[in-house]
């Protein structure tokens, strides 16, 4: 696609394997490079300059890959990669491209687990020869950022809290419900509001302005953009879901280089995108069996120490009722990935008893809240599996705790005793902090997003409150462990939720209006208070820290900008939807559980036409907020790309002096230039 | 075979219509409740089986535990009420009966999280070479139950299967209707479903 680089030609001549490349001349009809990975604007459209470029830490491992199509009747004989004109040592594998639409003979050439310690923008080139000696060269680039370790400045504990789908309105709604507003001022901040440094994050993915949760989390885990549905990898041209070009993730890098541990905690199914991005590499976020297997199989690469959430179905052999394990969702790695990364190949083993393997590996297993509370103080590795799929949401868990003798939603799902996220967080931090070298913890409020998809306003607000309580546990941990960084962010916004205002009527009046079935005449007109008619909704808070009820008089009202068809009556939905986004009940049918937002709040007859055709709401491209606390956390200010977050985290995790310079510059209005070159640390090797 | 498209008989078009804001709506649970109350008498030698009777609840530390009732009905004739799962790529002669009207989006999470463990693979008595056209109605099925794990043609592992029987004139009528619809679909598309 670009002219041959003279530097490349010189180095090619020196390499025996590239004899064809060295002697041949590029000509019309030569093979064609259609993809060069890592992705770069230089390859895609000839832009030689950052910032549209893939970036890596010094020494961070990633795969080099190119898709090369031969002329008709020819085959690709050899391919080599070059960085800055020098051939990259190592084996280049050639694999048939299996996606539809590629010319016959198209191959994917890969060189696995490459790394580069020199901070610079590097030229990446691929040279390929086809069977008639015609050759092609193509150029892209990538950047290795300048981050140097200095042990005395490093934050050894990294806590990344992700409120899935938590946009800025979600924070506001949670604050209004939890703390209220008086005379125009919030009565109290959320825990996340107490983190002193705030930034704004762009969330776009590699292939869309609107990301899904896989690239939305992958950017924080790897520092690079991914396609929607993919995490821990770059896209490729094979149909294999687990052979994509990998990028070493934060847990893998900090375990390999620093010996730190990794903990993954979520309220969703553990195979879900956010936990998946911190523990696996795949182009198919739905490949639950393989994702969970890989978390365990490659535990030694990332120091996996804590794994807690839902998704028990993946840990049970397929012969056990309730198992979700399927060969079609499992993984086997190609030989080049196994050799390059030093990982087990995996197997298609639906009958695997992964739960027993975890236990045999030394993990203490907690199946419910009581057993989590009883985990011994000397626990070194912890596995918590509290539901077969996504855990029940905070509202339904709290309702059961308040009325233990009354059958509740969690009973219908078969798991009456599920922990709250703050309780899981406490246990995770207790176990992870046993590693004196430090840890990375990813803690997710995962069902904020799922309840937004279902436009179940009270459920996502209460899940945001649950998430905030987990944030407070981490904030308290950081107060007593000053070598800790805490960041709170989201992967994207979901549903375009926002606060319209508040109801102008009491709850009893609202119920009567809904029963009348008169639609907008009863449920919009005279009810929806905008601007000053909204006033200040007040939700009494119970001693457990959650709203005593959400069906208050003059309640807060929420609308959706990315909504699906639905009915709205503003009344708290007594039951969650029975929907894959909520998790699958194991003992259905669930009498009275609606299937979608069109079967809910029907009686009031206020139909709201969705702008999207789906049954449920979906993500938006809106920026999201990031809050940070801890050593050098001031660098998380301003507007940043989501991949920037990874590099800022790693600056702080590795003790990069640049972060300290940046903080000082910020504090002194940009006049400060590093005068503290007393370098007692060490360069990262 | 008793296969009753119950609502079609009982309520006509009472189901929610997307975008139809002007008519009163009947929710699924109300349908279910009404239908359950109005079921025809249970035939001799047939046991009523509900999805909620499949597993012991609450769930223990590991997998689901099959109830004694479900285990005892292996090989016996039962009657079940449920919804046909909507599949993008249905397997000929088989559909999945679910406690709620689930959809499988084969391009999306598909096998990962769409169906409850109690979903039953139903094999139909006639038209086994063709996909069973989807119905949105509650279905009342009688047939012979089979309990135990088996890998199905769709890649799922079924735990419970129902071989729907063809003993009822009403049931045969329904299946004939389904078959003719299938032929229409096949001919209009000009190719067979895979």
Uncertain residue ranges of chain B: 1-34, 168-194
Any low-confidence stretches of chain A, pLDDT <50, length ≥5?
1-17, 670-685
User: What does the overall shape of chain B look like?
Assistant: globular
The CATH class of the largest domain in chain A, by name, is Alpha Beta
In sequence order, what are the helices and strands of chain B, one letter per element? EHHEHEEEEEEEH
Largest sheet of chain B: 5 strands, mixed, barrel
Count every helix of chain A, treating DSSP H or I runs of 4 or more residues as helices: 21
- Shape descriptor of chain A: globular
Mean pLDDT of chain A: 92
Find the biggest chain interface. Answer: A-B, 60 and 49 residues
Integer-rounded radius of gyration of chain B: 17 Å
- Percent helix range of chain B: 10-25%
End-to-end CA span of chain B: 27 Å
Q: Could you walk me through the main structural features you see in this protein, from its secondary elements to its overall organization?
A:
The complex is a heterodimer of chains A (685) and B (194). Helices cover 27% and strands 21% of the residues of chain A. Chain A folds into 2 domains: 6-144, Immunoglobulin-like, CATH 2.60.40; 151-496 and 620-653, Alkaline Phosphatase, subunit A (3-Layer(aba) Sandwich), CATH 3.40.720.10. By secondary structure, chain A is of the alpha/beta class. In chain A, strand 8 and strand 9 (135-144) form a beta hairpin. With 194 residues, chain B is an alpha/beta fold. Chain B has a domain at 46-105 and 115-187: OB fold (Dihydrolipoamide Acetyltransferase, E2P), CATH 2.40.50. In chain B, strands 3-5-7-9-8 form a 5-stranded mixed β-barrel. At the A-B interface, loops of A face helix 2 of B.
